[in-house]
Amino acid sequence: MEIHAETVLYRSSWTAHADNGHVLLLAKDGERWLATDERGAGILQTIDGQRTLEQLVHSYAGSARQPFARAWLHVDTITRDALRSGMVATEPGPDGEALGEDALVARAGALLQSVNGDGRPNQRSGFNAPVALASHALQAEIEAEQPAEVDHGDVQEFYGNAAEEPQAELCCPVQPAPADLSHIPSEVVERFYGCGSPVGLADIRPGEATLDLGSGAGIDVFIAARYVGPQGRAVGVDMTPAMLAVAQGARPKVAERLGYDVAEFHKGYLEKIPLPDKCIDLVTSNCVINLAPDKRPVFAEMWRVLRDCGRAVVSDIVAEKPVPLAMRRNKRLWGECISGALTEEALAAYMERAGFYGLQVLRRTFWREVEGQRFFSVTVRGYKFEKQAGCTYLGQTATYQGPFKATVDEEGHFFPRGVAVEVCTDTAAKLRAEPFEGSFVIAEPAVDTPPDFSCCAPKNETPGGCC
């Protein structure tokens, strides 16, 4: 959504209720609500329909004693959550009919009991901005995306039929490069229902372990198998037996043409990937995350299976504006990755909160217009870095080399170009690795490095190696 430094924000009339570290902001009509922490509630309470976003940031920076860059990150994050939930707007609007005080207190108590830690950002990544832990809008979105009449069985049936008989209407805003398909049987290529080419944009290196979620007939797994070589590993996970049967049937043909067999397929769900922690260098998905009712556990699972400094490259359909709830209940559009589409902003927010950093949109292509809603195919890349316990300052500095005048990371560190900024051991390690490699000069202090110092293998060293 379009907000900038001069945007003036308006909020609903609400009451605040606190319990167990959570603060519930409940609109006086009893319908709209948002749960956050004390920082988020404090920021939203300062919205008054008069001050601009920039003025709110200055106010928060002073009251919370935060550097301006980190204050901007905090205010921008919680404000966008509140905008998506309808608790905050860029224009004034009616509040609705107010409930009585007793009814509001009872409603608030029930809602606070339902708030858990599911919406809390991944603290192991360093992202620590205040967010909406839950809201009426998110709850309605999840319930509408997977109503009783649309479940995993419907999606399995939909793609099971597409496995039996190729369906041209499901394909494809972006096609893989022809050179990547030369070793793949036609029965697999004909059943490609992706919306991008994440494997082709992932810069796969020999020896890496890759994982494709919702692998279908196996096309992205077989492309990855060519790039990882005989010392690598290319894994696919899918929940549809008919698709897995096509992939398993094509596997011997691919192995014969490549001269080695590194592809493997597993039955499973995106929300619970059947692989151990930290075993994968690259996770890809191609138009499947939209099929998940709640995207948060999907991104959390992707982060879990990745090794430190591993990366996720996600191709999916995004909506220009939030998809209306009525459209979300359309079974056909659900299977076509339309009904469950996030906005591009929401997709990035979900990835950041799962722990991914250095997000970059690698490709964006218009797909189609449905019922007046415009949809795009995007491919987004993000990296994993897990902060170590006991991160310390040893006198290391990071100097940003440009090309921008300055830059800010996901933790709110501000790096003016050409200025040495003291950083902790974790931040120094992160800035040495992709995607920041080459953008910073890290200066070491004249002291010994502690034995548990965390670092990531440079691009030309062993994949997935962290010391």
Give a structural overview:
- By secondary structure, the chain is α/β, with parallel strands linked by helices.
- It has three domains: 10-143, no CATH class; 152-384, Vaccinia Virus protein VP39 (Rossmann fold, 3-Layer(aba) Sandwich); 390-467, Ribosomal Protein L9, domain 1, CATH 3.40.5.100.
- The protein is 31% helix and 22% strand.
- It is built from 14 helices and 19 strands.
- The strands form five sheets. Strands 7, 8, 9, 10, 11, 12, 13 and 14 form an eight-stranded mixed sheet that branches. A four-stranded antiparallel sheet has the order 2-3-4-6.
- Helix 6 packs across helix 9 (241-258).
- The two termini are 41 Å apart.
- The model is unreliable at 144-151, 154-164 and 449-467 (pLDDT under 50).
Q: Which residues sit in consecutive blocks of at least 5 with pLDDT less than 50? A: 144-151, 154-164, 449-467
Sheet of most strands: 8 strands, mixed
Q: How many discrete domains?
A: 3
In CATH, the architecture of the largest domain is 3-Layer(aba) Sandwich
Radius of gyration: 23 Å
Termini Cα gap:
41 Å
| Overall shape | globular
| Count of discrete alpha- or pi-helical segments spanning 4 or more residues | 14
Helical content (DSSP H or I, runs of 4+):
25-40%
**Integer average pLDDT:** 85
- Can you say what the CATH homologous superfamily of the largest domain is? Vaccinia Virus protein VP39
**What's the level 1 CATH class of the largest domain?**
Alpha Beta
Given helix and strand content, the structural type is alpha/beta
- CATH fold label of the largest domain: Rossmann fold
Query: Percent of residues in beta strands?
Result: 15-25%
Number of strands: 19
